[in-house]
Specification:
Strand order of the largest sheet: 2-3-4-1-5
Order of helices and strands: HEHHEHHEHEHEHHHHHHHHH
Largest sheet: 5 strands, parallel
Radius of gyration: 25 Å
Bound molecules: zinc ion
Shape: elongated
Strand content: 5-15%
Mean pLDDT: 88
Length: 369
């Protein structure tokens, strides 16, 4: 968790400065797109507030306090997130035993692989019972921390009743307590909640930032890092999930289709289609589509800004296509646009042979020019 937040320097500098200047606020709203580090930054911030061994302005990650926060087991940490109905008692006891195991797994996942999107088996929200538990805990005195911490993740998933109940806490915040709400949908929050918080905006991460997160934390090659960064549009969480779902098959199929279309080998295409007839997974077809779009974009980048090219291991293939001087950038953009319809068909689980054939014909159309 420590030192792994990238691309949010401005936010982190200003939060750290508030600690230096003893100006830490009582309630914050961290808002911005999903997967850019809002929750991680929240934990980083509250660890820095309570760290007993702060080094160069950052939490040390080693002291007792930091370690307890990292294990989500600090007695002065209240961490709330949307769950199925756990039937919480005011003491925080889970009365609904069928979700007990899922809840424990969720917490374990948050500690070990915070980027994974763990989904409960039943619909989740932040319920009034959970808010009552938070309020009950806040009414007791704090234990050992400099500041008690209350983090509410995806705060937009409180219904109006719950939000109104929580508003009372924001209106009369308990002493020595820092409350942080995170959301990717600030418009779904009650305006009265928003106006009670210091607002901290998080931006999308740039492609190079996502790329370096992937390269530094996971052992993957440059082409993959570049393509996952691009496919996920600045959402580091999604890019990391792509690694775990990654099979080379999507990209291999895409490159093979491009080569066959370039060589105009219809017979070979038919036997290739037969070879891959068992590929029925939506995920793989999505990856074939995404890789073809990335490749087409590379044709444009190669002309306009070669440093942006993703498929750096397939330059020969790119060069061969570029040799068809008649393909304009406008043609390529039109093709990418047309391919959106195919993307929709993949979502609808249309027969995969039809999709792959349509992609092949689409590619041939441009190569023939
Ligand atoms: Zn520390």
């Amino acid at each position: 968790m420590i030192n792994k937040i990238k691309g949010q320097d401005k936010v982190i500098t200003s939060l750290m400065r508030s600690i230096e200047n003893d100006k830490v606020g009582q309630s914050y709203l961290f808002y911005g797109p999903t997967g850019v580090g809002k929750l991680t930054t929240a934990f980083y911030f509250v660890m820095a507030i309570n760290c007993t061994n702060r080094d160069l302005g950052s939490p040390c990650g080693k002291c007792n306090s930091c370690r307890k926060f990292m294990k989500l087991s600090h007695p002065d940490l209240i961490y709330l997130f949307p769950t199925p109905n756990l039937k919480l008692s005011e003491d925080g006891e889970i009365k609904e035993t069928k979700y007990q195991k899922e809840f424990e797994t969720y917490i374990q996942q948050k500690i070990e692989t915070p980027w994974n999107d763990y989904v409960f088996s039943a619909s989740s929200e932040i319920r009034i019972g959970a808010i009552r538990w938070v309020q009950n805990r806040l009414s007791l005195s704090k234990n050992e921390a400099k500041k008690r911490i209350c983090i509410i993740e995806d705060a937009d998933r409180m219904n109006n009743n719950t939000a109104n109940a929580f508003l009372k806490t924001l209106e009369e915040p308990p002493e020595d307590t820092v409350i942080i709400l995170t959301t990717s949908k600030p418009n779904s929050l009650l305006p009265t909640i928003i106006s009670r918080c210091q607002r901290v905006a998080f931006n999308n991460l740039s492609n190079p930032t996502v790329e370096s997160i992937l390269r530094e934390n996971f052992n993957i090659d440059l082409v993959k890092a570049k393509s996952f960064a691009k496919i996920s549009y600045g959402n580091a969480e999604k890019a990391i999930q792509l690694i775990s779902q990654d099979t080379d098959s999507g990209r291999n199929i895409a490159l093979k289709l491009i080569q066959l279309a370039l060589d105009n080998q219809d017979l070979d295409f038919l036997s290739f289609l037969n070879e891959i007839k068992d590929v029925k997974q939506k995920k793989i077809l999505q990856s074939v589509h995404a890789n073809i779009v990335l490749f087409l974009m590379d044709l444009i980048y190669q002309r306009e800004n070669p440093s942006l090219v993703v498929n750096v291991d397939s330059l020969t293939l790119l060069d061969k296509i570029q040799a068809h001087k008649t393909i304009t950038s406008l043609d390529i953009y039109q093709l990418i646009d047309e391919s959106r319809e195919l993307q929709r068909m993949i979502e609808l689980n249309v027969y995969n042979n039809l999709i792959v054939t349509s992609l092949y014909n689409m590619l041939k159309k441009i190569m023939k020019k």
